[in-house]
Amino acid sequence: MSKFSQSLFSGAAKTRTAVAFFGRNAIRLNLITLTMLVLFAAAYIVQVNGSVAKGYAIRELEDRMRQLSLDNQKLEVTVREAQSLTNVTRSVKMLGLVAAETPKYLASATPAVAMR
């Protein structure tokens, strides 16, 4: 046989060997393929479930952040109202404070200095 015919028939022999292998082990190969398919499907479901759970947690945190921001704005308005001039003058009257007369200052002849 020539080298060309040997190489031509060696491919056919390899094909026959592969077909025979798959024929003998068809059930095993099908079971392995089915097992891998089930494992990949389970992994996909677990991953999607984790992503959805994280999405819900993020949405809840964003809602809480919006609510806290709104509460903060309300508190700032309350602080501004408490610091307004009308509220301060009303508080002065309620505390019984009176207006100061003309202030009297003490004058010293010698300047005050500190010693070492």
What do these coordinates show?
- The chain has 116 residues and is mainly α.
- It has one domain.
- It has three helices and no strands.
- The chain has helices at 3-24, 26-82, 85-95.
- The longest helix has 57 residues, at 26-82.
- The protein starts with a helix and ends in a 21-residue tail after the last helix.
Structure keywords:
single chain; about 120 residues; mainly alpha; 3 helices; about 80% helix; rod-shaped
Topology at a glance:
Blueprint lengths: L2 H22 L1 H57 L2 H11 L21
pLDDT < 50 runs, ≥5 residues:
none
Tally of alpha and pi helices = 3
Quickly give the structural class.
Answer: mainly alpha
What percent of residues are in strands? under 5%
- Give the number of domains: 1
Biggest sheet overview: none
- Termini separation comes to 119 Å
Shape: rod-shaped
Written as H for each helix and E for each strand, in order along the chain, the element string is HHH
The average pLDDT score comes to 84
Q: Tell me how many strands there are.
A: 0
